[in-house]
Amino acid sequence: MRAYGTTFSRAHPRWFTAGGHGVVTTADDLSQWLIAQNNQAVSAHGRRIATARTIRLTHTPPEVPGDTDYAMGWARYRHDDGTSEIQHNGQLLTHNSTATLLPDSKVGIAVVTNTGLISGDDAAQISLGLVDLARGKSPEVAKPFSMTADWVLAALTLLATGLGIRGVLRARRWARHTARRPWWRTALRLLPQALPVLLLTQLASLLGLLMNRSGTLAQTTYAWPALVVCAAAGGLASTAVITARSLALFRYRQHARHGAGSDEGDKPLGAGDEHEAFRPA
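Now predict its structure.
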């Protein structure tokens, strides 16, 4: 897995994998698979494993809807120079892969990496470079986007932490300024502080919506660790500020109430208006 420009090992969680993912394979298996895909279902040894029509069908996007490039497990792209590319990628929490077919040159490329979902897009980056090499072009060397995005998230994490500390330290001052306001106005002023908490609790759902996947917050820590750390820092900072302000406001109002009672009922006899105390009968 990758976070903040470095990589570290983390065991893949135990879960049920079947069907279209979690396939255990080797480089030799993948090469045989790509050869058959590029050779109309005929293996490197001349053995037919399926009909040519079946292979063409899996590579051909449907006519309806007409705005999709996705066929049966393969996405087909046509570039401006007239060349086509057929590709499929897969991502799990700790590894990802990309398989690419170049029908014009009969080249097949498979890349498997041991980095995770969003923060580990190495397979896609390496595949792009290998496709360029296969077409006689100079590949563009690009860093994974998380190498830059993680440092932006790190800065936001520090900012959230600093604002949280500042909010806790200034809770008493905030309580003095808001003590005389109605409770509903005070609640409205605290409401924006709850947004980072809401983001943290719904982070897995938001990522799932964007990626067309479902998962838990624990699984999200595999997908993009730096994002989860940033969201957690914001949520904890907001919780601390809300708690500190609520306690400070409660104590200030309690003190003000007791102070008002003391002023009215606990005055010693004659401690009021001096002129009234010594006025002759």
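The chain has two domains: 2-134, 146-265.
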